[in-house]
Write a structure and sequence with these properties.
Strand content: 15-25%
CATH class of the largest domain: Alpha Beta
Order of helices and strands: EEEHEEHEHHHEHEHEEHHH
Structural class: alpha/beta
Bound molecules: adenosine-5'-diphosphate, magnesium ion
Number of helices: 10
Shape: globular
Largest sheet: 6 strands, mixed
Radius of gyration: 19 Å
Helix content: 40-55%
Distance between the termini: 47 Å
CATH architecture of the largest domain: 3-Layer(aba) Sandwich
CATH superfamily of the largest domain: P-loop containing nucleotide triphosphate hydrolases
CATH topology of the largest domain: Rossmann fold
Oligomer: single chain
Amino acid sequence: MIKASNLTKKFKDFFAVDHIDIFVPKGQIFGFLGPNGAGKTTTIRMLTGTLKPTEGDIEILGLDLKKNEIEIKRRIGVVPEEPRLYSHLKGFEYLEFVMDIYNTNNKATRDRIDELCNAFGVDYLEKLISDMSHGMKQKLMLISVLMRKPEVIFLDEPTVGLDAKSAKILKELLKKYSESGTTIFLTTHILEIAEKMCDVIAIINRGKIIAQGTMEELKKLTGSKDKSLEDLFLELTAQEEDIKHIVESL
Ligand SMILES: Nc1ncnc2c1ncn2[C@@H]1O[C@H](COP(=O)(O)OP(=O)(O)O)[C@@H](O)[C@H]1O
Ligand SMILES: [Mg+2]
């Protein structure tokens, strides 16, 4: 469902994403884990057609992104890091706008909106988007994507800004969707999210994928039994020594 080879993004002389390969089969929840600035958002933007790669090829749904951008965008869903919504619209107006764009203004979609609103406790569709908090906007954005039941869903740091209950509901929902064949690509800098939610995790640091596998496979990489995935993550992203120095100097 998602395939990228040699994917690279250079900003001037800086490699934000440095020759990475990604392969995500149907129905998998793929977690892209890395510290701030690792290249996660840049990767997601390239995979979803909002940023042109410097180098590399991308196939989504088996289609070449360069040649089938519109069809791919019609069939995928993207929840960006920052919900960018039209602030002068009310919540329900925004959802209607999205349904009209995707030509899915039908009973099935409207029923799904009701279900999703119930699940996330969204009872503020009458409000102007400009009067919503960050978390409220994020839930509206999530509903606008999930209501379409896209075949592939990309989420950039989806639980940031959500309250604990909404985050838990989102986790359960994504699991349910993946079980029915939806493919999910999500980024996170939070180890626990990757650990709890994802079938396969790729760890990215400074634009490069430095480890990849199932939880079991990654745990084996830690070598000793007492080492947690957190230790491995910090070791691989070379933050362990930094943290020691920082704490000692405080
Ligand atoms: N448009 C841009 N111009 C220059 N540098 C950028 C741009 N977008 C991202 N970067 C840089 O690329 C690196 C990766 O950023 P990003 O993909 O947003 O990281 P992450 O999402 O993993 O936190 C960072 O060093 C960031 O400053
Ligand atoms: Mg990011």
